[in-house]
Design a protein that fits this description.
Udp-n-acetylmuramoylalanyl-d-glutamate--2,6- Diaminopimelate Ligase, Chain: A, domain 1, 5-stranded mixed beta sheet, 6-stranded mixed beta sheet, Rossmann fold, alpha/beta, 10 helices
């Protein structure tokens, strides 16, 4: 996980449907996606204060402040803000007292207002920041959703990954990303892939140029993000190389997660789209507990033992 990230105040507010009450420094620095409910701190207890968390004020905290004079609230909020908190979020459209905004201005701490319920906006903030702080990498390849299986195609340029993706789209499957795939580890053992903002829904076809899949095939032909379930490495066919013919499963490591991997040789006249579709369906069968290759191997072994 990244140590910290800096997000512009306007972008953070827009992403979570909030309004900005105090700009602060114009950016907020986050070290964690966890939420703090600072009721104890407003009462004066700071021994176990998680100051790096987003500080969320719900009904209880806000009405506690409403019951104070300006001077008393300012004194408590001044101590609270002096700890360098990343920002304050006021839930339920509860406008904060002037003492809070004055202290926020003094310490350049952003303050946001949300109309959502306290728990709801808290969960949304946690999900948003956890994703932003998650380990990620940019990978050259094509990401597809094939029959519900997230397939990452890798290989050197010129092997036909984008053309294969177009053929897959014509077969009813969905494009996630072309050329550059942003991979993020969202949990300990789960990766998701998506397209960078600049290339979302776009695909490059040599000889034609960049085309927008949404307008050519409809919005149902694209998907915002998809879990990385299977990696397929494309390479030119090599006559002297021994390729997997019995379905033995190998894996590759990406961002500390092991993902099933298979090598797909490319040769003239080979219909890669059909092969990828079969690979996806076979992957689903394995996920359901049926391994065709393993069953074939067991039956072949039984026949050999019977002959002996």
């Amino acid at each position: 996980m990244a140590e910290s990230i800096s997000i512009k105040v306007e972008r953070f507010a827009e992403a979570l449907g909030m309004s900005v009450l105090v700009q602060g420094s114009g950016e907020a620095v986050f070290e964690t996606g966890e939420i703090g409910r600072p009721g104890l701190q407003l009462a004066g207890y700071y021994i176990h204060f998680a100051r790096s968390r987003v500080q969320l004020l719900g009904n209880s905290e806000m009405h506690y402040l409403y019951g104070m004079s300006y001077e008393e609230a300012y004194e408590r909020l001044d101590r609270f803000m002096s700890h360098g908190i990343p920002c304050v979020v006021c839930a339920r459209n509860n406008m904060p007292p002037k003492a809070l905004t004055d202290c926020a201005q003094k310490y350049a701490t952003p303050v946001f207002l949300s109309g959502a319920l306290t728990d709801d906006i808290g969960h949304r903030i946690t999900n948003y920041l956890s994703r932003k702080l998650a380990p990620s990498a940019l990978i050259h390849g094509v990401m597809l959703d094939v029959s519900g299986v997230g397939i990452l195609l890798r290989g050197v340029s010129g092997l036909g990954k984008s053309e294969t993706a177009l053929e897959m789209i014509k077969l009813g499957h969905r494009l996630v990303a072309d050329d550059v795939v942003e991979i993020t580890r969202v949990t300990e053992n789960r990766l998701v892939g998506r397209a960078p903002d600049a290339t979302r829904c776009l695909i490059e076809v040599r000889g034609i140029g960049v085309v927008d899949v949404r307008y050519l095939f409809g919005v149902g032909a694209v998907l915002g993000e998809k879990s990385v379930d299977l990696v397929m490495d494309l390479e030119l066919w090599q006559a002297d190389r021994e390729y997997n013919r019995l379905g033995a499963q190998s894996t590759t490591e990406m961002l500390g997660v092991r993902v099933p991997e298979t090598m797909l040789p490319v040769s003239p006249g080979r219909n890669l789209a059909v092969v990828i579709e079969v690979a996806a369906r076979n992957f689903l069968l394995k996920r359901m507990g049926y391994d065709t290759s393993g069953d074939f191997t067991r039956r072949a072994q039984a026949l050999l033992e019977g002959r002996e």
